[in-house]
Amino acid sequence: MTQIIAVANQKGGVGKTTTTINLGACLADLGQKVLLIDADAQGNATSGVGIEKGTIDKDIYDVLIDEYPLAKVIQPTQRENLDIVPATIQLAGAEIELTTRMARESRLKTSLKAIEGQYDFILIDCPPSLGNLTINAFTASHSILIPVQSEYYALEGLSQLLNTIHLVQKHFNPQLKIEGVLLTMYDARTNLGAEVVAEVRKYFPENVYQTIIPRNVRLSEAPSHGLPIIDYDPRSKGAEVYQKLAKEVLTANGK
Ligand code: ADP
Ligand code: MG
Fold first, then answer.
1. ipTM associated with this complex
2. Which parts of the sequence belong to the AAA domain (predicted)?
3. Would the pTM of this model clear 0.95, i.e. be above it?
4. Which residues line ligand 1 (CB under 6 A)?
């Protein structure tokens, strides 16, 4: 069965895209067939796996708004077992356009039916908002992975996120679960980091991954080369931690 995971947090810059790309690539490296879906108009997941904007004909916008077949927009990446549904800036219009469409919450879910069973994991990179695109991702998903930046205001905004999850559970997707909470950009040199980790573990007693993602400059360099960290610098700390996370996710899903 395919496990569909939305990577979400309405705060920008917490590591959603970095996690989508690198968890996806590490799962693929472990032999899993993985599809990334870029649901952010910034298209950072798309460029981060080496797809050049100018080469994209149809993207996730055409799927959500014009019901263009999702299978026809899937592109392979340089890494085996890792494909992507790209996004371009035209997706920015979808947030508003969806409002007037029929079944606006379930359009992504419906489009995914056609590829059911073809992947082990589908990871959806959500935009930094709790609007229609994120609601579509939550409605289509089995679970949500929440990256949380290890900083002072880490928990800020999480109650709104949980509220949105509850609303989607109630109205569209009762099975929706929290896949896990991932601490990102951890800085071991400050006391604050450890305090934040303790605080987040208290807030989510059952859901925080053992693996913590530290700040690692190689992780921030990799996207400009269009490569996941395991291809850009396989010996880096960043590669090591995302490989650990992938193993944790595999185990949690009984794979
Ligand atoms: P989001 O998708 O939540 O907006 P990103 O994954 O794009 O966040 O990360 C925001 C910025 O921080 C990017 O420039 C990214 O390269 C960088 N970054 C993400 N994770 C790390 C990390 N662990 N160490 C260093 N830089 C990181
Ligand atoms: Mg992003």
1. 0.99
2. 3-178
3. yes
4. 12-18, 44, 128, 184-185, 213, 215-216, 219-220, 223
